[in-house]
Amino acid sequence: MRPVAATRNWDLPAITTAGDLASWLQVQTTELDWFADLKGLTSNTNRPPLHHYHYRLLPKSSRAVRLIEAPKSRLKELQRHILSGILEKIPAHPAVQGFVKGRSIRTFVGPHIGKDVVLRMDFCDFFPSIGGARIQALFRTIGYPESVADLLGGICTNVVPRDVWRQCKGDVDRHELWEIEALYARPHLPQGAPTSPALANICAYRMDCRLAGLAKSAGAQYTRYADDIAFSGRKNFADRVQLFSIYAAAIAMEEGFAVHHRKTRIMHQGVRQHLAGLVANRRVNVIRADFDRLKATLMNCVRHGPQTQNRDNHPDFRSHLEGLVGFVETINPEKAKRLRKLFNQIPWA
User: Fold this and answer.
1) Which tens digit of pLDDT belongs to each residue from 29-71?
2) What is the pLDDT of residues 198-221, one digit of tens each?
3) Which of 298, 40, 10, 313 is CA-nearest to residue 143?
4) Percent helix, strand and coil across the chain, each to the nearest 5
5) What is the pLDDT of residue 2?
6) CA–CA separation, 257 vs 122, rounded Å?
7) What residues have CB less than 8 Å from 347, skipping those under 6 apart?
8) 229 contacts 201 by C-beta, under 8 angstroms
9) Are 54 and 190 a contacting pair, CB within 8 Å?
10) How many other C-beta atoms can be found within 10 angstroms of the C-beta atom of residue 276?
């Protein structure tokens, strides 16, 4: 496949054969075949030591589950090499704010501050909905031969063994579990691999172009952070936001993504406008209930010890709490001073 013209400016490594790819990744050719696993051998075994990923099932509030697929150390090294050597050299769409250097959750929310209406939409199964064939086609599009593109795609995608789902416990919707098991049974972007966010952003580039154009025609702003998308505008946009959301969902569907309609929210200025856990009415701020909950947790850690508050059994509860405090510090440093003071008083010993 002839590469797109824009690749001339991306300074991508020249890799023409499987042997070249093995040398570039500093592995043997046989190892390359093993990690790419194009024949799906690792997904057909029930022996976890032979799997390339660690799996963790997280329950959702809607009687569903989220699967975290964390690559093992050797595969993660290869994926990070692909990320830094290839994927990070491909520019993301200007509206994309997630997993791009110099952009953040603040830049995702910032354009929507003080608008008359904010439209928030969410995609269903964002990463696993992007299939392996699409990733292989992407690598061919940027100029790599089919044999190389297939191996790169295999390293960056995964098929989940069916025995992983036997870990599901509790009140889980069995029909939804069957559907998600079928989704993960084909090659897809694993949520937990370092390459997945960048590949998802590249795959969604045309959708971002179309949604940005739609927003511009309606006098609105558009930003995306992974599977969260947001539109905002003044009164003219507020008057037609309901119809606009239908057009936006149709564009996403045409580009291979499905909108989670139950999570779609139209938020006018008179209510709390929140995006990705932040308030966007007058300035970017943390949600007060989340702040109060974290403050109460820290106070209880000071009074009764941190072991009494680790209800979710975090393996490194100190780092978990410090990460939450650090997040508030990036959003509202003044409010975070109270949290940092409490954190420093916790008797970790």
Assistant:
1) 999 999 999 988 887 777 777 899 999 888 776 656 789 999 9
2) 999 999 999 999 999 999 999 999
3) 10
4) 50, 15, 35
5) 65
6) 10
7) 302, 305, 306
8) no
9) no
10) 17
Of 171, 174, 166, 137, the residue nearest 152 (C-alpha): 137
Q: Is the pLDDT of residue 26 over 90?
A: yes
Q: CA 324: distance to chain centroid? A: 18
- What does the alpha-carbon distance between residue 211 and residue 180 come to, in Å, rounded to a whole number? 27
Nearest-angstrom CA–CA distance, 46 and 105:
39
CA-to-CA distance for 136 and 154, rounded, in angstroms? Answer: 8
Burial annotation 50-77 (CB, 10 A radius, 16+ → b, else e)? ebbbebeeeeeeeeebebebebeeebbb
Confidence tier at 268 by pLDDT (50, 70, 90): very high
Which neighbouring-strand residues pair with 228? 122, 225
What type of residue is 75?
A: L
Structure tokens at 276: 């990705």
One-letter amino acid at 227 equals D
Q: What is the rounded CA–CA span in Å between residue 250 and residue 261?
A: 12
**Residue 273: pLDDT over 90:** yes
Strands 274-275 and 278-279 turn out to be: antiparallel
Q: What is the distance between the alpha carbons of residues 93 and 205, in angstroms, rounded to a whole number?
A: 6
Write out pLDDT tens, residues 14-24: 999 999 999 99
Average pLDDT, the chain: 92
Q: What are phi and psi of 286, to 5 degrees?
A: -80, 155
pLDDT digits (tens, 9 = 90+) for 176-200: 778 888 999 999 999 999 999 999 9
Question: What is the Cα–Cα distance from 82 to 175, expressed in whole angstroms?
Answer: 37
